[in-house]
Specification:
The protein has one domain: Dihydrodipicolinate Reductase, domain 2 (2-Layer Sandwich). It has six helices and seven strands; from the N terminus they run H-H-E-H-E-H-E-E-H-E-E-E-H. Strand 6 and strand 7 form a beta hairpin.
């Protein structure tokens, strides 16, 4: 959504991770309205498939089942991706504090962002203006849910304000929008094909 023209002209693309994808799609429309003197807080929760196949105590059934916990808070490897993109927008002073969590789901991701505004805004109007012509970003009137995007390339986003306090929540399938289907979308653009070619659009109920 933000680098389409550059992707179409390049021969090499590095796909962003699932955490930066869900976080940045939520944050970027609001960048001009944020108070740069306040930290941006990103609370992210991912299904256990995001941890890969490597044997680890945190991904054992007895650990993750009926459990929820944070891991690699603040210094997670994907936090640098988020901050890199903020700096590219000239927002060097905006600090994003990122904390990921594992939840007892096979797939799916939910990101909640907490930020401070410079002045009151109409959050949903800003989202709708930014993503009105984006077929795979859906602006919701209620909080986004993992169940509605599982098995698809969609990103669902909702936002709400209370005075100068801003809350944004986004959901994606971490294995698709956060990985393989995003790679396919980039490949389609690079080869001059329709971007949506082969991208899954029907959610399944786990």
């Amino acid at each position: 959504e933000y680098n389409r023209s550059q992707i179409a002209k390049t021969s090499l693309v590095a796909n962003p991770g699932c955490y930066p994808t869900a976080s940045l799609l939520a944050i970027l429309p609001f960048i001009p309205y944020l108070d740069l003197n306040h930290t941006l807080y990103i609370d992210a929760k991912s299904g256990v498939s995001g941890a890969g196949k490597k044997l680890a105590q945190t991904s054992h059934f007895v650990t993750i089942n009926e459990n929820l916990f944070a891991y690699s808070p603040i210094n997670h490897r994907h936090s640098s991706e988020v901050n890199e993109q903020l700096k590219k927008l000239g927002k060097e002073n905006l600090k994003a504090l990122f904390v990921p969590h594992l939840i007892p789901l096979t797939r799916g991701m939910l990101v909640s962002v907490y930020a401070r505004l410079k002045e009151p805004i109409e959050a949903l109007e800003i989202l709708q203006t930014k993503y009105n012509n984006e077929p795979f970003v859906r602006v919701r009137r209620t909080c986004s849910q993992i169940k509605n995007v599982a098995g698809t390339h969609f990103c669902d986003i909702f936002a709400k304000t209370d005075g100068l306090d801003l809350f944004i929540t986004s959901s994606i399938d971490n294995l698709l929008r956060g990985a393989s289907s995003q790679a396919l979308a980039n490949a389609n653009l690079m080869f001059g094909l329709e971007e949506s070619l082969g991208l899954p659009q029907i959610a399944y109920a786990p």
